[in-house]
Amino acid sequence: EAQVTQNPRYLITVTGKKLTVTCSQNMNHEYMSWYRQDPGLGLRQIYYSMNVEVTDKGDVPEGYKVSRKEKRNFPLILESPSPNQTSLYFCASSLKGTGREQFFGPGTRLTVL
Amino acid sequence: TQLLEQSPQFLSIQEGENLTVYCNSSSVFSSLQWYRQEPGEGPVLLVTVVTGGEVKKLKRLTFQFGDARKDSSLHITAAQPGDTGLYLCAGLKTSYDKVIFGPGTSLSVIP
Questions:
Q1: Contact assessment for residue A41 and residue A109, using Cβ atoms and an 8 Å cutoff
Q2: Mind listing the pLDDT tens digit for each residue in A26-37?
Q3: CA within 20 to 30 Å of A14's CA: A20, A87, B42, B69, which one?
Q4: Which residue ranges make up each domain of chain B?
């Protein structure tokens, strides 16, 4: 089954404790992206990757890091989480850029205390 | 700055009613997508409109892209409880290879 998977689905942590949210897709998509979703603000792009070893900042990259060492994986790293990073996070993938249909993962609900 | 606005923000209607939700911007987009998101899940693409004035139909859903490619509407005929969800529009700016999402319209269809 073609899908985007994210882990964990739910995470409660404390300020300053480094964490990684994993994202994997099995559709051989070049383009992958991370979004955060907050009430009234919609989906805001954090980082995106056009292909392996190619990443770039989205609209709200502060406090986040990403890497793209393999085509299928695109982990999101929070080196020192803060309460304002409490949000619902989505990973998405598509063929060659955002003009194509993006397939979204199920989401990771993160709470930073 | 919110480049894409959606209205209404919330909509609660009875099964069988018709409704229209709107997506507006002061910017021109090369294309516009509509996604539906159900609770606990990620958004799923419904349609992409590319040409100004374009109308696309998906069963009881009708999507229209404004002539100036700055706005779009989604009309649902005879809404059903299965239509309940968050409807997101997303505008694509090809020159920046960037997609911008609106804040969404939360639709609740009551049986």
A1: no
A2: 999 999 999 999
A3: B42
A4: 27-94
